[in-house]
Amino acid sequence: MRNIVLFLLVLITNVINAQSLQQKLNALVNSETLRTSEIGVTVFDLTADKSLYKYQDEKLYRPASTEKIITSVTALARLGESYTFDTKLCYTGEIKQDTLHGNLYVIGHFDPLFSDEDLNHLADAVIANGIHFITDTLAADVSMMDSVYWGPGWSWDDTPSSDQPYLSPLMLNQGCVEVTVSPQEKGTRPAVDCMPFSDYYQIDNRAISHDPTAGKLKITRNWLSNGNIISITGNVTRRTTVTLSIQPSERFFLHTLVNRLNNRGVRSKYVSFINYPDSLDKDVRTLLTLSRPLREVLDPMLKKSNNLCAESVFYQVAANMFSHKYLTAKDGADAIKTFLSGAIGKNPEDYNIVDGSGLSLYNYLSPELLLAFLKYAYNHKEIFDVFYDYLPIAGVDGTLKNRMKKTKAQNNVHAKTGTVKGVSSLAGYVRAGNGHMLAFVIINQNIMKQKEARDIQDKICITLAGS
């Protein structure tokens, strides 16, 4: 009898708690703050395997960067965490004395984190193998993807921001230059330092140090005319660094590599973009392979919401499914949709997925779909162990570093943020007060003030953490 009574008490308590949670969440989603916008919310108890809350969860919304959840979970399932992004330096022919009688190939495989140091490694490998002259061509191969350097539905006026890179299988420093401007004596030109250094771009420095009449400091590029002149104007009062994209990425890469080789005394008869012919596989020799593990790419992709990393992963998923060259955004979307219909068990025709980062205005997903990916990751330990660690942690790191501090959600919520004009979203995991692991998705659309949407998201997470 005592056991029956205890069971009934627990059951009644759970029902009361569930009703209380429903009331609290209803109050938040019906807040006057959200009167002019739409919100979709879903919460699922992964431990108990049951839904806790749904509000407009089947409606379609622009997901913003929570799209990266779909891209990363699909990549971990299809590629595995040991997958690598390889940049290869190969040659055909033979090396005699200090001359390569043949072609030198740099083959890009869309490493989004290829650095200035990596470029030096390529140049040093040429010298280390005794090559000072190339009789034929120094060739860059970017045939992994087509020449469309932006995703479908990306906003043209987001350039030259580093958040919207020019996509290419060969990218140096994410296709960007970090421009640092430092004031000097009053009335003089400031000092300008750029990294990585290259003569591919030009500097037009017309700024003045400590002169209020010069106007507001502006550092930009002549992007409307597709140029690479970095102009600096206005008043410089403190050290300022701005990151600007350079276009096109593959030419920036190749031009700067040629510079590095020339500085080391290496010359080539021709420099060109040439597709590496598969027929040469039996005759090719590899000088160097630089490999980037998927784990290293997922870190900035999820923690910092790096769009280039997400698009690179998107194309790797496409390459895993399709064997042809010149992969397109549609190939990436088709690969994601194949996983969606197979492993996730959803109809891809019910949604619109066109890129890997969530930048596109054409993406339309439901909270229910994002929840399905969160549940899939949780139910596959080899995926969850990696994915969970790389999600931003509330009050600790990434894009959640300054949110939910000094609450039960701090160091508890692991979730991906999403922000574009008019959209604010948050999706991930939180451990409830009863020890259960919960998955949640919140998408707020048509929001004019991001802070208002984030405040509601934070309150929902804090409520879940205390449930």
Describe this entry's structure for a reader.
By secondary structure, the chain is an alpha/beta fold. It has two domains: 2-81 and 296-465, DD-peptidase/beta-lactamase superfamily (Beta-lactamase, 3-Layer(aba) Sandwich), CATH 3.40.710.10; 84-293, D-Ala-D-Ala carboxypeptidase C, peptidase S13 (D-tyrosyl-trna(Tyr) Deacylase, Chain: A), CATH 3.50.80. It has helices at 2-29, 67-78, 116-128, 249-263, 294-303, 307-321, 329-344, 367-378, 381-390, 450-465, and strands at residues 38-45, 50-55, 84-91, 94-96, 99-101, 104-107, 133-141, 176-182, 191-195, 202-205, 208-209, 218-221, 229-233, 235-236, 240-245, 267-273, 285-293, 414-420, 423-431, 437-445. Strands 3, 4, 5, 6, 7, 16 and 17 form a seven-stranded mixed β-sheet that branches. A five-stranded antiparallel β-sheet has the order 2-1-20-19-18, with helices on both faces. The longest helix has 28 residues, at 2-29. It is globular. The two termini are 29 Å apart. Mean pLDDT is 94; it is low at 8-13.
Q: Describe the main β-sheet briefly.
A: 7 strands, mixed
Report, as a whole number of angstroms, the end-to-end distance: 29 Å
What is the averaged pLDDT score?
A: 94
Fourth-level CATH superfamily of the largest domain: DD-peptidase/beta-lactamase superfamily
CATH topology of the largest domain: Beta-lactamase
